[in-house]
Amino acid sequence: MGPVAVLGLTIVYVSIHVFLSILVLKDAEKRGIENSVTWATIVVVFSGVGLVAYLIRRTMPESEAEDPEDAEFLLPETEHSDDSSHADE
Q1: What is the pLDDT, as a whole number, of residue 15?
Q2: What's the domain count of the chain?
Q3: Confidence class of residue 34 from pLDDT cuts 50, 70 and 90?
Q4: What integer is the mean pLDDT of 25-46?
Q5: What is the DSSP letter of 71?
Q6: H or E stretch including 22?
């Protein structure tokens, strides 16, 4: 395969990723998802996996996506009300 073909395929590959990220950005803004730029970046960097993750995220109601109380694994900076009694020990 010649250098012109490689360049052409690279341009097509990058164009598809940019196009998908723009679609994700516009869709996330339309749905009111706060971190729409982050999702567009994830789609550019991780391509298909990022797109699938976004599609799963967008089907979740906003209350489920942002409520750390129901999370199975909490982030380090979040605390359960049950865990606050153990912090003093």
Answers
A1: 92
A2: 1
A3: confident
A4: 90
A5: -
A6: helix 3-31
